[in-house]
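Hi support team,

I submitted a single chain yesterday and got back a structure, but I'm not sure I'm reading the token output correctly. Could someone confirm the output below corresponds to the sequence I sent? I've pasted both exactly as they appear in my results page.

Thanks,
R.
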Amino acid sequence: MSAEFALALSEILQETGVKMSSEGNLGAPTRHALDWKNPDFYNADSLNRELERIFDICHGCRRCVSLCNTFPTLFDLVDNNPTLEVEGVDKKDYMKVVDQCYMCDLCYMTKCPYTPPHQWNVDFPHAMLRAKAIKYKKGEVRFSEKLLASTDIHGQFSGIPIVVQTINAVNSTKLMRNVMEKTLGVDKNAWLPSFATQKFRSAAAKSRQYTAKDGANTPGKVAIYSTCYVNYNEPGIGHDLLKVLDHNEIPYVLVDKEQCCGMPKLELGDLDGVAKAKEANIAHLVKYAKDGYAILSAIPSCTLMFKQEIPLMFPDCADTKLVQDMMWDPFEYLIARRKDGLLKTDFKKPLGKISYHIPCHGRVQNIGKKTEEFLKLVPATSITTVERCSGHAGTYGVKKAHHAMAKKIGKPVAKLMTTNPPDYISSDCQLAGHHIEQMITENNFVSDDTNPPQLVHPLSLARIAYGIE
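Hi R., thanks for writing in. Yes, this is the structure output for that exact sequence:
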């Protein structure tokens, strides 16, 4: 049945007083604001009623079973109780489901047929978030988890060469990794990022004095929100973004002051922590939004916070809405510049074969495959795109409790990335990229050990393609 016919039939039935319950949405999913300031939001009994309602719908559908371990955990609880129904699941076991959710949003945006505007109004991620928020309010989140989510605290070590070199060396020893596993719950075998000897914000080149050229789709000047990861761990990603902007004669500035976007706090359910980060960041970002800057963030999770999660928490904040409207994924911006006829395509170096992983928080931005679209502009370059969760998911993949599952989720992705042996593997989420690289190595998915594919961020691939040193 076509969408047009279904809509016409629905209208006829409504006019005649006949109600029709549709199997899935005919329109795109929409989000409701997060009612996190309502006292009932933190009512455990109210939450359990909503979880039972949603779990019962999920049990009858099971379309999301392959996305992550959240849904298999739920379905096992249902299938292994005498009733074979959700009503037979002990309410205490609901948290077993919640603890497996890492807020990727893929179920909502790509799989679930019952999201709003469907009458069943299923918002699985925000139900999980509500449960996490109640857990956090009850003081049931461990100190070690809070510390892992405090990226700005970690970043205080970055940029001091002697300190950084010492910390990086110590953190790579077997003894220290065993200690971290016992005290912080960080799996001793999980890949961990190193700290940079010089922060991105400290070493970023100043923009040349280009005239801003606005296009029909894009502002002609850019403000860079650095992100914790780029600033503290892999500043080269940020430097390559600046080089690509410079090559395209786009003037840029760095946001004068910033802190963590709040995504790690969101994943814990620390909504008050997210609110504090929002107050600190929006106050600075809105100045650039009002001045007509496109605001670029090179980490998909950070971009998503300002495009979706913070606006849903603060739907009535005009400044938040302005920032939301001016926040861009870098390749979303570059492809829009191409539509404006303002992107240079004078690529000097082919990139060969690239296996590109599109991360979950990139997919749910509803911007399409902009990174893939850009890389396909490079001559003599072929792209294999993998649309599946890597399993890393922020701090989820490094925790002892979840690392084995993160590897199980990531293994099929790593295998797909190497089916046609590539020259490069790449992901907009560099954490996912490193996790995939680890899976490739551990499972011997590359037969030629002398010439393994290089892990290179897409922005660095763009810089290489342009022939920029």
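A quick pointer for reading it: The two ends are 55 Å apart (CA to CA). Let us know if anything else looks off.

Best,
Support desk
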